[in-house]
Amino acid sequence: MITIADVHKIFNKGKANQVIAVNGLTLEIKDGEFLVVVGSNGSGKTTMLNLIAGSILPDKGNISIDSTDVTKLPDYKRSQWIARVFQNPLSGTAPDLSILDNFRLASLRTQTKGLSVGVNDAFKKQVQEKVASLGMGLQDKIEQPMGTLSGGQRQALTLLMSVMDSCKVLLLDEPTAALDPRSADVVMRTADTLIKEFKLTAVFITHNLKDAFNYGTRIIQMGEGLIINDLSGKDKTSLKQNDLFDWFA
Amino acid sequence: MDFYLTALLQGLCFSAIALGIYISMKIFNIPDITTDGSYTLGGVVTAVLLTNHQPTYIILPAVILAGATAGALTGIIHTKLKINALLAGILVMTALYSVNLTIMGRSNLPLINLPSLFTILNVVSDPNQNTFLILAIFVVLITFLIGYLLKTDFGIAMRATGNSESMIRSLGVNTDRMKITGLALANALTALSGYLVAQFQGFADISMGIGIVIVGLGSVIIAETLINWFKLTSVWLSLVLVLAGAVIFQLVLAFTLSVGVDPKLLKIVTAGFVLVIVSLPRLSLLKSS
């Protein structure tokens, strides 16, 4: 469970370009919940995600994961629970490293990266099998640099990488924003399958209201750093796509 | 011919610096100017310990430690104080000038008639061939160590740090600590070049490091041009090409001198040569497009 309690974050405090990104946000995300976050630009969605991930730290308030207070933990320590897929396909993978090396690092997300050679034939086979499950035909290309792949392929692989090591929370920051509709569909369906299969707690930011409608067990709308709509369970399933459009009217 | 042999030997001496620059520049993407200072530091520490009749097994770790400390300092200034890497390097390099002068107590320390790395082992009677053999063993050993390191899980994390920082942080790596370690490693290697060169030329000099970063940079750029040319991805081949780059660089300089270029102009020739290698891939690209 992720608990965000009365969290504030102000950028450029006291300057002319001051931005109140998150303004006393309180939110509880239950285990196994697939939370969809919508909201207009500047509503604080990405800031909230970065606060959960630890790449920015709050000015005020508390954040805890599984009843561990993580408010002051930096991102590289929160990685023991959290895996991320970034909006930019370039951010989630290392382009000059081979697919295999990328997966090796992902398989050690919660562990120390030691002075032994971990990429061996057994590991290679394991990665090939995982990659084959995507059905993109990438299993024969795992020695290739990640940078030779398309954005869609890289996002799909980033998703797969997130479950290479034990993972509780999956953060998805507009993972399909830079993709063509077909790749976006593949990535979203892969995400949905993995979240169900590994019983992940997921936070998914999107501007695509169709995805927001199709996926998730709960939906919130953010505005000016606060939650202005929150539907879960039956309310989410009975929500109509047009209702969502009305939220932005 | 001896002339070119000396160049080859010098190239081997500089291969450690080339590997150091390869790590800071290509792997971590950090332009590290500490090099000029840590190279001299390596030479100075070697010279002072040699004149105090210390054995190799003390000198070698001392040189590595000195270089690593210099690099770590640059790393700490860069990551913890958030100062531009170039400036952090310049600061440490400048400070090292005084450190080196203090350690030596004078600006030049001759090592004539002292036992060195090249005299403790006498495999072949010809001193030049003997030096070549020892240097070759030394260089193969470091290359093997670095190559192995880059293949380990730690090494992959190192390579990812310079490549995609957001990714590697989300995978649980403290990138600040990684950069400090990387710069320490790079400058330890650089100091090793100072160690080799001081013994090879038989003296340490306070100004021996001026402009030395260009030697490492030139070697790495030669290697990079070849890597891009042949579209190589292998870590081992890349390292071998970096070594080749260091030797080619010295051979080209030897050639310039042998055709009668004034030694005073050597640095300008060096800079010009590096400029040519850097711009060559771009110039050929312009033509084809």
Structural features:
heterodimer; A: 249 residues; alpha/beta; Rossmann fold; six-stranded mixed sheet; four-stranded antiparallel sheet; 10 strands; 32% helix; globular; B: 289 residues; mainly alpha; ABC transporter involved in vitamin B12 uptake, BtuC; two-stranded antiparallel ribbon; 78% helix
Protein model, in words:
Chain A has 249 residues and is α/β, with parallel strands linked by helices. Chain A has one domain (2-111, 119-247): 3-Layer(aba) Sandwich (Rossmann fold), CATH 3.40.50. Chain A has helices at 45-53, 75-78, 99-107, 121-132, 151-162, 181-197, 209-214, 234-237, 241-247; strands at residues 2-11, 19-29, 34-39, 60-65, 68-69, 82-85, 169-173, 201-205, 218-223, 226-232. In chain A, helix 5 (151-162) runs parallel beside helix 6 (181-197). The two termini of chain A are 32 Å apart. Chain B is mainly α and 289 residues long. Helix content of chain B is 78%, strand content 2%. Chain B is globular. Chain B has a single domain (2-280), classed as Orthogonal Bundle (ABC transporter involved in vitamin B12 uptake, BtuC). Chain B has twelve helices and two strands; from the N terminus they run ααααβαααααβααα. In chain B, strands 1-2 form a two-stranded antiparallel sheet. Chain B has helices spanning 2-27, 35-51, 56-80, 85-104, 117-120, 127-151, 153-163, 165-170, 175-201, 213-230, 235-258, 266-288, and strands spanning 108-110, 203-205. The chains are: A alpha/beta (249), B mainly alpha (289).
